[in-house]
Amino acid sequence: MHGRRPTMSSLHGMVAAAHPLAAQAGARILSQGGNAFDAVGAVAAALNVVEPFMSSFGGMGSATMWVAAEKRVRVLDFVPPVPESFPLERFSRRSDLERGALAVAPPGNLAGWCELNRTYGRLSLAEIFAPAIALAADGFPIAEFGVAEFNEQAPLLRERPELHADWAKNYLPGGGDTIELGQILRQPDLAGTLSDIAAKGPEHFYRGALGETVIAHLKAKGGTLTMADLAKVAPRWREPIAATYRDRLVHVPPPACEGFQFLLTLRILDGFDLAGLERNGAEHLDIVYRAIRLAAGQRIAHNNPKPEKLAELMSDASVEKLRDRVRDGEPITGPTEQWMAEAPAGEDPAHTTSFSIADREGNLICVTQSIGSPFGSGVVVPGTGLCLNNFLYWADVQPGSPNRSQPGSELPMCMSPSLSTRNGEPVLALGTPGSYGILQTQAQAMVQHVDFGLPLQEAIEAPRARLWDGRAIEVEDRIPAGTIAALRQRGHEIVPFDVGWTMRVGGMQAVARDPANGKLTGACDPRRDGYVATP
Question: Looking at 352, 384, 432, 483, which residue is catalytic?
Fold first, then answer.
């Protein structure tokens, strides 16, 4: 009412995803007796169909979850390492790896979905993938956000003729140059591929005929990925790292995941009485932006820290020094992306998706996964419907960088699927896409929800900002003009977006749980095609 989305609550399960049809696919699995871990595969595979510019089983990601039967938080990491075959010596600039076969890293998404199902699920892959297979075979009408993405990327990929023909055959079968609202997209090749995987299991991809088809195509396009690289893909169960924020404990995956920046930001902010300030006023936002920039600097300076170093960075003494820097009022200049300052302010090539799911049994999970840039590498394997990632674009290839990636090394990844507990009970699964902005915007939404008490949907809808290298910050112009002027006086180089809402500050999906009565509340981001569904 009053122009706002209604509160979506349920006792039987909740799915918050980046597209209505994907959310419905997860809800369908819950209604058929599956649990949250089964629903992950259904949602993820459906996203592969309906938002192929962000999702593919040829990507990678991670998940943070509450396992009700074990009464604990767990993390599944399905970000494979830099491939042994990676020809590091060929590159000196990140931009060399933005598109094409050389940018493709070993895909981990399919392995991750199947591992969650194998360990904690109870339905078959055929049951889990059925909604996505039907969507791919029957087709679906493309919604507003999809239209924008297709029409933005089509001319860019046309500039790469070695990629465009296969891409267009898969996604523009009518031969047109643009997509129109409501146009039906059918992907019969992808339907067949998902059906084969459902019947034969993930080994069909990682050690079987599908993998051989993919590797042969990459080799023909100049890539170096091998079957040995695929065969080494193995999701890892890991212990989460956590930090206290107000009355809750917030968990994210450990390094090489870069989510510790999000936790460090919260640790800094925990020393300030934000609730006593004017919401979205200059003082509130100045403190949050300063904390974010300081935490980003620590993440970049100490990328992929060992446990001992991470404990030092998160210690009271270290955090208090950063709080003092927030308080001193002097402008803060520093990087927010990688070690280098190559990427200009305003560049955000990442296309990621995040979804959160809860079931009636008490399981709660947040998954963040990606194919990297829009349509990843741009490589579509003929006859498969598979669009491959460009995650080696997120490797650091700069000579002289202390974080330079090596073949076989862990690939640091700026994802941060989070799971919050309070008094040992799960209360919130929250995640977002947005490249290095992920580590910034989740903290902003958490402040709105926890400190200012906004309902989850309103906290996600609240105006957000994206910080860039130096002092640059882009903000949604729903922040008052007077506040923006005051922030400039404090040393922030603020540039308002000329629209009230922008995907440049993420596309957040979340599910909250009330431990007192089991009520589940879902929230989704109107900046993209986010939607909530219940069984």
Answer: 352
| Under 8 Å between Cβ of 316 and 355 | no
Distances (CA, A) of 443 to 18, 26, 449, 533: 20, 27, 10, 25
Nearest to 281 by CA among 60, 16, 43, 462: 462
Give me the helix-helix angle, 438-446 and 282-301, nearest 10°.
140
Cα separation, 507 vs 14, whole angstroms? 18
- Is the separation of the CB atoms in 57 and 45 below 8 Å? yes
Q: What sign does the CA torsion over 361, 21, 391, 343 have? A: negative
| Secondary structure, 3-state, 503-518 | HHHCCCEEEEECCCCC
Could you tell me the CA-to-CA distances from 165 to 37, 154, 162 in Å, in that order? 37, 11, 7
Pair of tokens at residue 458: 């309103």
- Report the alpha-carbon distance of residue 191 to residue 188 in Å, rounded: 5
Token pair, residue 487, equals 């922030």
Please give the model's pTM, rounded to 2 decimal places: 0.94
Structure tokens at 68: 């009700």
The residues facing 8 across adjacent strands are 522
Give yes or no: 352 in active site.
yes
How confident is the prediction along the chain (535 residues), in pLDDT tens digits per residue? 456 777 889 999 999 999 999 999 999 999 999 999 999 999 999 999 999 999 999 999 999 999 999 999 999 999 999 988 888 888 777 778 889 999 999 999 999 999 999 999 999 999 999 999 999 999 999 999 999 999 999 999 999 999 999 999 999 977 777 889 999 999 999 999 999 999 999 999 999 999 999 999 999 999 999 999 999 999 999 999 999 999 999 999 999 999 999 999 999 999 999 999 999 999 999 999 999 999 999 999 998 999 999 999 999 999 999 999 999 999 999 989 876 544 444 444 456 899 999 999 999 999 999 999 999 999 999 999 999 999 988 787 777 777 788 888 888 888 999 999 999 999 999 999 888 899 999 999 999 999 999 999 999 999 999 999 999 999 999 999 999 999 999 999 999 887 788 888 999 999 999 999 999 999 999 998 899 999 9
d(CA 214, CA 199): 19
